[in-house]
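Ticket reopened. Same input as before:
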Amino acid sequence: KNEVEQSPQNLTAQEGEFITINCSYSVGISALHWLQQHPGGGIVSLFMLSSGKKKHGRLIATINIQEKHSSLHITASHPRDSAVYICAVRPGGNAGGTSYGKLTFGQGTILTVHP
Amino acid sequence: DAGVTQSPTHLIKTRGQQVTLRCSPISGHKSVSWYQQVLGQGPQFIFQYYEKEERGRGNFPDRFSARQFPNYSSELNVNALLLGDSALYLCASSLYPGQGGVVSPLHFGNGTRLTVT
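Engineering reply: fixed in the latest deploy. New output:
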């Protein structure tokens, strides 16, 4: 079982729909990142969370540390939101040795928003 | 300010050859991390460098090595290339390395796409 699991793997939506992508992890973390990757490879960091909720425009990210779960929501989705969304976690505060600074990624969720 | 820059953008090599990939972090960022992303999968952590020292290593063979220079730029070297090394290699920089609960946002470059034939 992967340390970071995302669902769904593929998501198709119509423009305007509310979208939720989920991320579950099995290790203690110091932070969780939500990333967006467009065709061609470039990755943009959307959010970095260690607790609670963050909002930026139409994007909302939440995290529940006790349940080891995070969600990324997109309100009023648009075709330009089509991309791969990746959840990545940093190990907990006392992680050392070979895990120092390691970021573990989920497999990504491919989102396609149709006009 | 310029973002994280990686060079080259694309590279084609033959099995057995060696390759060097380069990364320049955002000005002021002292932490550089390298990741390998095989087509259709999420990235895998290779190395992290902070203040010119290796601070983390992923599960990659010794054919992979890296270093960080006094100006905090970094190089990733891969020797004796295999077909399976074909991937997008991503570099990310941050202000802090992420230990002890002190984290800072990551900034990624656009990657170097390596094809091994």
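Chain A touches chain B at residues 4, 30-31, 33, 35, 40-45, 48, 50, 86, 88, 90, 92-96, 98-108 (CB under 8 Å). Residues 25 and 68 of chain A are 6 Å apart (CA to CA). Please confirm and we'll close it.
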